[in-house]
Amino acid sequence: MKRLAAISLLLLLTVTATVSAFDFKKVVAGQTLYFTILSAGDNATVALVAPLDNGRYGDFPTPQGRLTIPDEVSSDGVRYRVTAIGDRAFAGCGRLQALTVPRWVTTVGNAAFEGCGNLHTMVFLCDSLATMNGAFKGCVSIDSLVIGPSVRFMPSFAFYNLEKVGVVVFQAVKAVSMNYLFFGCTDSARIVFDERVGSVPPFLCYNFMGLSEVEFAKGTPSLSTIGQCAFANCTSLRSIVLPVSVNLIESNAFSYCRLQRLELLSPQAPYLLETPFFGVDKATQVLIPCGSRQNYVNSAMGRYFEHFDYPKGCPTDPLQAEVVYIHDTVWLHDTVYLPEPAFRQRLEASADTVGKSPSMYDHVEVDLSGRIRESDPAAWIFLDGKIVRITHAKRLTGIAVKAYDENGRLIVDERIPADQPSDNYYLKLPKKKRYFLTIGNLPTISVDIPSQRISY
Predict the structure, then answer these.
(1) Containing domain of residue 439, as a range?
(2) DSSP string computed for 99-118
(3) Domain endpoint, select from 102, 125, 140
(4) Which residues, listed in sequence order, are joined to residue 427 by a DSSP beta bridge?
């Protein structure tokens, strides 16, 4: 009898020790959840945990279907805020399909959702999530990840081990810190920014290599800023459309993206902070609103991209560049006035000089002392491997100086700097047999050079 009593006591102690992983349980929407108390008093808090030690459920029923964790729970007359999801709290819950994390949660424990193979939707409504490391190992079915409108903080690398994420929705970014959230994620994914989003936070998608599509819902009218390194090294991103409200793109925002198409909906070029498109191909197609080419060419955007195209249906720009030809023995060390109505006649009148011995001078002087009006066309000059001297440069700060080879490829792209210390600005052109040079504030037809060149 004494031996039987001892065995019964041992079994009772074993069961008591086994279930000691939680302090109390609550039934929420028909599902039993388990909590351990973290703090008492006026700011009482609890963590949601698995019922058994080491994140096990044993014979306890596991959460399933769609589950919204409550913001607060009560026990013995005390109201507790749910501020943590414990280590392995949902590990192995294979029938859990959707989960909403409430607003007070600041910590998601290690491997909290490990092995939740059917979890397809995660919604974060928490204000400040400080810790979430390795929470998603084995989550292979997540196709919707929603970052709620109240979220301000999320830890760096929060989702780095997500094996699959179809679409990420930011409902209203008020971020103070959201760095490297998807660092290294390689599975194809799409991000949607809700119309309430005011800015894309710095480093948000840095090195999100699987990011293939970015959508700004309903034009995202509040969006003004693309933050520093926001999409840097997103190597699967091929196309993006920036809303009309975007007026600032910060340093390295799109660095090393392999963009093939960039569309900007604002007729005014955005302000660029330092080098937002570093490493992006200059030949990327840039689509801009009808009639806005001059604004973009003469802005900082003109330093990064060679071609600015209009959507189909846009009327042709009323201002066209004039293409002229000068033989390498004509007008060397002479003055060429641009623009000048009689320039073609002067060229034709000097045609008899073609074929004479080359000049002894090794530079061409271009006098732009006359005021260039917006209505004046830019002029194209055909030269041969010389140094170009532009006089009266102080009056022409911001004027583009571009050189193209005979196939229309941009090989020189400079601007007379605003702080030009002297009246003269020198441009040394590369040693090519032939190229075109444009000097003026309306260099608009670079892609049309081969077809518009005057024959000779």
Answers:
(1) 322-452
(2) EEE-TT--EE-TTTTTT-TT
(3) 140
(4) 388
